[in-house]
Amino acid sequence: MSSLNLGAWTRPSSMLTQVSRSRSPSLLLFNGLRKLPISFTPSKSPSHGVSSPGFPSFSVSAVLTKENTVKGSEEEKPGFNFDAYMLEKANKVNQALDEAVALREPEKIHEAMRYSLLAGGKRVRPMLCIAACELVGGSESVAMPSACAVEMIHTMSLIHDDLPCMDNDDLRRGKPTNHKVFGEDVAVLAGDALLSFAFEHIAVGTVGVSPTRVVRAIGELAKSVGAEGLVAGQVVDIASEGLSDVGVEKLEFIHLHKTAALLEASVVLGAIVGGGSDEEVEKLRKFARYIGLLFQVVDDILDVTKSSEELGKTAGKDLVADKTTYPKLLGIEKSREFAEKLNQDAQDMLSGFDPKKAAPLVALANYIAHRQN
């Protein structure tokens, strides 16, 4: 497949042009419609060992490195302890996940599900869901089923992404990938089971929320992971490997769907079940889309600047697979500038909300921008 017509993947839109900062790529803002591409033009475009299935060993280091702690916290206003927030929410999410996916018959599939689901991770998506819910007046308990669901789907995507037919990776979160431990057949089924259970968990576990909002949340999550979301991004990503004509527009399409869609769903689900107005939901959707793309830009930078030991996964695999990345198109410095701009644009979307309630989302945006793994 030599080329792809992105017009078949994206929806028409009217977009506003935002003037970039000095030496930064320009960025086109999107309206409230779903899945619109963010586009920018650079000044010059270059050519182109199994652990226990439980979680008692989970530690702060799985959430924050020293560098993350310093850089993610120093910009926050006094009075909000980001480190304590991350630790508290991660522990509660891990406990909820452990209870949701208990070890039962058939044990093999539940062991495989728990192996990847409880392997640590930063739990950024569940935290975004909870923070968005609390921002619009909801509670942590109301958001938790949705928070767990997005983490289940995220874990599914990692299990499947690591398979030999996809990225063929041996390491994930510092441990052997699921198929290396349980075999490819069980790994595929473990991912499938997590995907289906995520929707069941929202439907059955969400309490105190109107059925209309629960159904709306399920619809949002389904769209984020299907042929208009994660799957779309993955398909175009696979088809683009080794091509010399992959430009910024196509790269953004891939990551707005493959990475940003589930981050967007995390925030939007929290806002919906928390009782947010349509205006609040759409404003938070834009915030999430910015940080979703930010997450991938940072991921691309880390892939070429950090070791496998530092990342907890195989470093440099994008280069080996001849994938197009932001550093490949823009260079490291321009990619870092773009990341900073996305972070600022995301935080601008939080204006108008209670600053105290918005503090966790501001901190999480900074954390995503400055994370080291």
Automatic annotation (TrEMBL):
**Full protein name:** Geranylgeranyl diphosphate synthase
Molecular function (GO) terms for this protein are: geranylgeranyl diphosphate synthase activity; metal ion binding
Query: Which PROSITE patterns did the record assign?
Result: POLYPRENYL_SYNTHASE_1 (PS00723), POLYPRENYL_SYNTHASE_2 (PS00444)
SUPFAM superfamilies in alphabetical order: Terpenoid synthases (SSF48576)
Metabolic or biological pathway, per its Swiss-Prot or TrEMBL entry: Isoprenoid biosynthesis; geranylgeranyl diphosphate biosynthesis; geranylgeranyl diphosphate from farnesyl diphosphate and isopentenyl diphosphate: step 1/1; Isoprenoid biosynthesis; geranyl diphosphate biosynthesis; geranyl diphosphate from dimethylallyl diphosphate and isopentenyl diphosphate: step 1/1; Isoprenoid biosynthesis; farnesyl diphosphate biosynthesis; farnesyl diphosphate from geranyl diphosphate and isopentenyl diphosphate: step 1/1
In the record, the note on similarity to other proteins reads: Belongs to the FPP/GGPP synthase family.
A GO CC term assigned to this protein in UniProt = cytoplasm
The taxonomic lineage of its organism, from the top, reads: Eukaryota, Viridiplantae, Streptophyta, Embryophyta, Tracheophyta
Q: Which top-rank group of organisms is this from?
A: Eukaryota
* Alphabetical UniProt keywords: Carotenoid biosynthesis, Isoprene biosynthesis, Magnesium, Metal-binding, Transferase
Q: Does the UniProt entry include the keyword Magnesium?
A: yes
Cofactor dependency = Mg(2+)
